[in-house]
Amino acid sequence: MIDAITTSLFTPIGEDGLIGIYLILNGLKVTLIVTFFAMIMGSILGVATTLMKMSSKWYLSWPANLYVSVIRGTPVVVQLVILYFIVLASLDVDKITAAIIAFGLNSGAYISEIIRAGIQAVDKGQMEAARSLGLSHWSTMKEVILPQAIKNILPSLGNEFIVLLKETAVIGFIGGVDLMRAGEIIRSRTFEDSVPLFTCALIYLLLTYIFTFMLSKFETRLKQSD
Amino acid sequence: MIKINNLHKSFGDNQVLKGISEQINKGEVVSVIGPSGSGKSTFLRCINLLEQPTAGDILIDDQSITAADACVDKLRQKVGMVFQNFNLFPHKTVKQNITLAPVKLGVMNQQEADEEADKLLTQVGLKNKADAYPSSLSGGQKQRVAIARALAMKPDLMLFDEPTSALDPEMVGDVLDVMKSLAQDGMTMVIVTHEMGFARDVSDRVIFMDGGYIVEQGDPEALFSHPKEARTQEFLSKVLR
Hints:
Chain A is an all-alpha fold. Helix content of chain A is 80%, strand content 2%. Chain A has 9 helices and 2 strands. Chain B has 9 helices and 10 strands. The longest helix of chain B is centred in the last third of the chain and has 16 residues, at 169-184. The relative contact order of chain B is 0.17. The interface between A and B is medium-sized, with 19 and 27 residues.
């Protein structure tokens, strides 16, 4: 056991002479960077897509619906590979940027669905009451609907970010070295299976646990304002 | 004040209003009664365009509200509405519920609106609830706040859509009292209700609707005591025992 840990994590492995833990930490950095920026890109895209979908103009709602259908209907790993090897092939885009764009695009579609569901969950009597007072559609949205929808949206949004973090584990498909890929490299160089894989699993678990914890704190605070 | 000509409303294949013509004068209190599904709520909701009429015309102060160029938001500022389910804004306090529209629409500044809210809350007997959130109020209190909220826009006309149907029986009286004093103050009111006693006491006129038509209408005393139409007699014999 101790041997396995020393070999896979603390002994120089491979021709570059790097130790396992260094690879893992570098991989973790890539995972976090991709997750973070994809989260931001996804949120912006999600809001924009929701606005387009709710529009009464077909040339706005139609592309938004198509985008969501395509993203939801295909695996994220397929989207990632197509984006990197086909769409961005002629451009000189590095793997991490490509991954951020792919996961951002993917997440944006899901986030737009989360926002839409959150808005639709607000009782339609709220819209009628505000409109009956003479408020316009947009001021009703801003003053009445969105403040209530946000409470429906935030918990699901937190879940989406956890899913996103875990889904980045397929970055290896385009040759990027994220946490999962780092584990795989160690495995192939040392022929130790358990230590690198469980180390990866543990780190993912720890990250999602911390995130869930922060989220539940935040939700408790939101509930207090009810 | 309101003229309604041959109003039709369909939801898909379902014809709910099949030609309603009616006139409501300033200061008049009109109750609309009838069985469920008779179209009375739809009729009311057409008056402030929460439902878009399929055909026909509605004129308020000689201005068509169904015309393509009619400004719906402006119209609604002058037509208050009270809903069966109150529809208070749960994330705002009682006072904020009342002041939101007048301030946002530039009818009053925040200070004027606050003063107006205090006055209205006193009027509906809920002055001590100004800073409470709707979730802490009983149904009857919520509905009285909803009435105050509608009145804050100083409407010329108030629409009530079964305002007491979702209330516990013991709460009904408080809400009806507020409406009664409103009627006495000369507010023009159209009330869809199942409270026959209230309709009889407070209304200047009662309309009986069934199957998307106005079957009969008239003075409350006459309509309740001597209904002319067989359908009205049948309905009243069931609800008045």
